[in-house]
TrEMBL record:
It comes from the Bacteria. InterPro entries: FAD/NAD-bd_sf, StyA_sbd. This is FAD-binding oxidoreductase. Residues 146-256 form the Styrene monooxygenase StyA putative substrate binding domain. It holds the Pfam family Smoa_sbd. Transmembrane segments: none annotated.
Length: 412
């Protein structure tokens, strides 16, 4: 069977590794950290895995965390025209619920499980020289992490990368003592969009140590009113600033945080990055090639919750493509064709949906949300499509088709 090397022990790399291992392939995952180091690392992201992506890992026997705390079965969206001025509220169901899980718990458990199932784990820092050696030793090397400047091996796709700088300054935290969202019949993802300032998200979450809690993500437009976390150095300071932001911008949810605290000093983050699409073929100085996957080729802002879901879907598609390729050589042409197929069927919609949410909603989308505030089928469609962004197209791009959907729902 083929010998595959995977750089990176995250969602894309490990899921691909398990998928190939299950089919008898020889697979080595190269991680820069041990399972223990992954578990004890600082928070790097907060994410929600929607239905189909969640199902992929369940099919691989990787769902080791089950319980009510991490599930969200609905969405609750507030649209504000100015700080504290809510003009619209949309509540709907997520028909294919997933979960929000502490990735430090997930990846540390998965990496140990990968070795237990017969995979090989290499714990080392891999640089470009190391990639050269691995490319010579494996039939295919897949790079799934942008650490160690690997992204410079993969050319930026200027036609598909519409941004040249970060669109949001991010602040995330895992909190204990946060009051549940009582306004929805089921545990829900809470969204607040404040025009010209940014977005707030909170959700049920499964913490690596304490189990069912909540996590918060604030997306601030640089230089605007939500952008208040520069220079924060402690968890307590970060939480106090978050409370202050919510009292001013969203007082109706601020009381949920009044008695909350961040779990520990490793369970919060601030940062920013530029959304970028890159070409999938990485060219090494020797002329050998490696293939990019996950955030290496599709780095999206977390505003639409697509990062982890995109990685899962890419890993599933890559597994199928490798299996179908049999014993043929993994040429640059195959790498390009494999990525292009994913881009045409899913990737372009994931990126377009994310970029759409980074901009002020056009009038026809606001009309849809207004109708969804009273017509539950429209609300359900909106929230459930976060897991399948391709379902928004082509109608979401057409004012006429969007209006037709509204009229059909109103007449039903």
């Amino acid at each position: 069977m083929r010998n595959i090397g995977i750089i990176g022990a995250g969602q894309a790399g490990l899921q691909l590794g398990f998928g190939l291992l299950e089919k008898g392939y020889t697979v080595t995952v190269y991680s820069d950290r041990t399972p223990e180091q992954l578990f004890n690392a600082r928070l790097a992201a907060t994410t929600y895995l929607f239905g189909r992506a969640y199902q992929y890992e369940r099919e691989l026997g990787l769902d080791f965390w089950q319980g009510p705390g991490e599930y969200a079965r609905g969405g609750d969206l507030d649209v504000c025209v100015a700080p504290g001025q809510r003009v619209l509220r949309v509540q709907g169901r997520i028909l294919q619920p997933g979960k929000a899980l502490d990735l430090r718990a997930k990846y540390s458990r998965w990496l140990a499980e990968f070795e237990r199932r017969g995979g090989t784990v290499g714990v080392r820092d891999v640089d470009v020289d190391g990639l050269e050696a691995l490319a010579a030793a494996h039939d295919l090397v897949v790079v799934t992490t942008g650490r160690n400047s690997f992204t410079r091996l993969f050319e930026r796709d200027a036609e598909r990368s519409v941004h040249t700088q970060p669109q949001r300054h991010l602040t995330a935290m895992i909190v204990t003592g946060m009051k549940p969202l009582h306004e929805t019949p089921d545990p829900a993802l809470k969204f607040i969009l404040t025009a010209g300032h940014g977005e707030y998200f909170s959700m049920p979450y499964f913490d690596r140590i304490r189990g069912p809690l909540h996590c918060i993500l604030l997306e601030a437009i640089p230089g605007q009113g939500l952008d208040r976390f520069g220079g924060v150095s402690t968890a307590a300071e970060a939480l106090e600033r978050m409370k202050g932001v919510l009292r001013e911008f969203s007082p109706w949810v601020a009381e949920r945080l009044e008695r909350a605290s961040i779990v520990d000093e490793s369970s919060w983050l601030t940062g920013a990055f530029t959304p970028t699409v890159r070409k999938p073929v990485g060219r090494l100085p020797s002329g050998r090639t490696v293939m990019g996957m996950g955030d290496v080729v599709m780095l999206n802002d977390p505003i639409a919750g697509q990062g982890l879901n995109s990685a899962s879907k890419q890993a599933h598609a890559m597994t199928q493509a490798i299996l179908e390729h049999g014993d043929q050589p993994f040429t640059p042409e195959w790498m390009e064709q494999t990525f292009e197929h994913f881009w045409r069927t899913e990737g372009q919609y994931i990126t377009a949906f994310t970029n759409m949410l980074l901009q002020p909603p056009p009038p026809h989308v606001l009309n849809y949300l207004g109708a969804a505030s009273t017509l539950s089928p429209l609300a359900d469609t909106f929230f459930d499509n976060f897991g399948e962004p391709q379902r928004f197209w082509p109608w979401i791009a057409s004012p006429e088709e969007t209006e037709a959907r509204i009229q059909r729902a109103a007449a039903a």
